[in-house]
Design a protein that fits this description.
This protein has about 260 residues and is α/β, with parallel strands linked by helices. The protein has nine helices and nine strands. The structure holds adenosine-5'-triphosphate and (4-amino-2-methylpyrimidin-5-yl)methyl dihydrogen phosphate (MP5). The site of (4-amino-2-methylpyrimidin-5-yl)methyl dihydrogen phosphate has 19 residues, from strand 1, strand 2 and helix 7. It comes from Anaerobium acetethylicum.
């Protein structure tokens, strides 16, 4: 079995963050480990408060995993600010895991800032150059690339721009656009399109986390990038289709239903 590590925030309501990542890692047959970057008091409707994890224990958690266990792939999710970004970037440069997938989490589905906007420069300078794959949504692309995104052509131009910043691969998620759920992958040479039907639901809490951790697990298992993304999107679409109407706001994706037991 391959070992996957998530470095991300804790969502006590279980739909996003490390909780979504660990459920996805397990459902896809990998061994999941988690380094907590922040504790978020949140639910399907709102973010109440955030406590950043002290940098020393953030670094110690990463050391504890890497000094003992072989890590096939790392997923990086919420990093709340400059200090945590610098620490994680330095540890990733030190341990050089074979795969690093980063979801540059900025705002929760239910609203609420999860990243200090002042950390944008650090994200661009220290983290984007070390990642195997960056998976921004449309608002995140607009902030990182500094351009408005309305069309698939805009997505292409922004993907090229983010690749230039140092990400080996870029997957722009089109969930925030209208029409079918269209995502675009750029590997520096080719563009790959991934389309799925848009499911009419408000239960989309954790979709970005689920997709990026599914890609991480698939890469850990040895798939090439386009296959890892295609399979992860299949997984995610079913997890949204069977999403759980839990809570008063955006319910979570569902990792355990008949589809997975049969696949
Ligand atoms: N209603 C939907 N039906 C099917 N797929 C969807 C739907 N909404 C989003 N997706 C897909 O889910 C993935 C995440 O997309 P999105 O652009 O919403 O990212 P995100 O904003 O990071 O997610 P999150 O909702 O977790 O913040 C993409 O593959 C997107 O195409
Ligand atoms: C700890 C944590 N990490 C990430 C997200 C983003 O997920 P979503 O945008 O689906 O709410 C979240 N809400 N909480």
């Amino acid at each position: 079995m391959k070992n996957c590590l998530t470095i991300a925030g804790s969502d006590c309501s279980g739909g996003a963050g490390i909780q979504a990542d660990l459920k996805t890692f397990s459902a896809l047959g990998t061994f999941g480990m988690s380094v907590v970057s922040a504790v978020v008091a949140e639910n399907t409707s709102r973010v109440i408060s955030i406590q950043d994890i002290d940098v020393k224990i953030l670094e110690d958690q990463i050391d504890a995993v890497f000094e003992d266990i072989e890590v096939a792939a790392v997923k990086v999710g919420m990093l709340p600010g400059i200090e945590s970004m610098r620490a994680v970037a330095a540890k990733l440069r030190e341990y050089r895991p074979p795969v690093i997938v980063m979801d540059p989490v900025m705002v929760a589905t239910g609203g609420g800032n999860l990243m200090n906007p002042e950390a944008l420069g650090t994200l661009k300078k220290e983290l984007i150059p070390v990642v195997t794959l960056l998976t921004p949504n449309i608002p995140e692309v607009e902030i990182i690339a500094g351009t408005g995104i309305r069309t698939q052509e805009d997505m292409k131009a922004a993907a090229v721009e983010i690749h230039r910043m140092g990400a080996q691969n870029v997957l722009i998620k089109g969930g925030h656009l209208e029409g079918e759920a269209y995502d675009l992958l750029y590997d520096g040479v080719n563009f790959y399109s991934f389309s799925a039907e848009r499911i009419d639901t408000k239960n989309t809490h954790g979709t970005g986390c689920t997709l990026s951790s599914a890609i991480t697990a698939n890469l850990a298992k040895g798939m090439d990038m386009p296959s890892a993304v295609a399979e992860a999107k299949r997984y995610l679409t079913e997890a949204i289709r069977h999403g759980l109407a839990i809570g008063k706001g955006h319910g979570p994706t569902n990792h355990f239903h008949e589809f997975y037991r049969m696949n």
